[in-house]
Amino acid sequence: MRLIEHAFSIPGDAPNHYVETLRTPDMSLGTYSIRAGGEDDQSPHREDEIYVVTAGRARIVTSDGEADLGPGSVVFVPAHEEHRFTDVSEDLTLLVVFAPPYSGAS
């Protein structure tokens, strides 16, 4: 067993921040934080993703649709799909699962 703590975390004045907390051969896990009013500047990834909103409110916009998100929302984004968090009205904290592990490449 491994206990993993995650919380809102953005150094300095950055608009967003990602911290990886676990990596295995099959998946990785991290926390993505976006300040209220902040910008989501990510590009599509080569990995499937699951986002779990642990705090905050925002909207997700993908090539497949849009949805308002709040604590407890869960979103699946397939590999290579364009996606953005917009209208971040409260500091947003997302638990992110990548499978296979996050490569950092588009």
Description:
The mean pLDDT is 91. The chain has a single domain (16-99), classed as Jelly Rolls (Sandwich), CATH 2.60.120.10. By secondary structure, the chain is mostly beta strands. Strands 1, 2, 3, 4, 5 and 6 form a 6-stranded antiparallel β-sheet that branches. Helices cover 0% and strands 53% of the residues. It is globular and about 35 Å long.
Give a quick summary of the entry.
The protein is mainly beta. It is built from no helices and 6 strands. It has a single domain, classed as Jelly Rolls (Sandwich).
Estimated share of beta-strand residues: over 45%
Q: Report the uncertain regions.
A: none
CATH level 3 topology: Jelly Rolls
**CATH-derived architecture:** Sandwich
Instruction: Determine the structural class based on helices, strands and strand pairing.
Output: mainly beta
- Please provide the count of β strands: 6
Q: What helical percentage do the residues reach?
A: under 10%
Rg, alpha carbons: 13 Å
- What's the N-to-C terminus distance? 31 Å
Quaternary structure classification:
single chain
Largest sheet: 6 strands, antiparallel
Name the average pLDDT: 91
- Based on Cα principal axes, name the global outline: globular
For this structure, what is the CATH class? Mainly Beta
Say which CATH homologous superfamily is assigned: Jelly Rolls
Number of helices: 0
Could you say how many structural domains there are in total?
Answer: 1
Helix and strand string, N-terminal first? EEEEEE
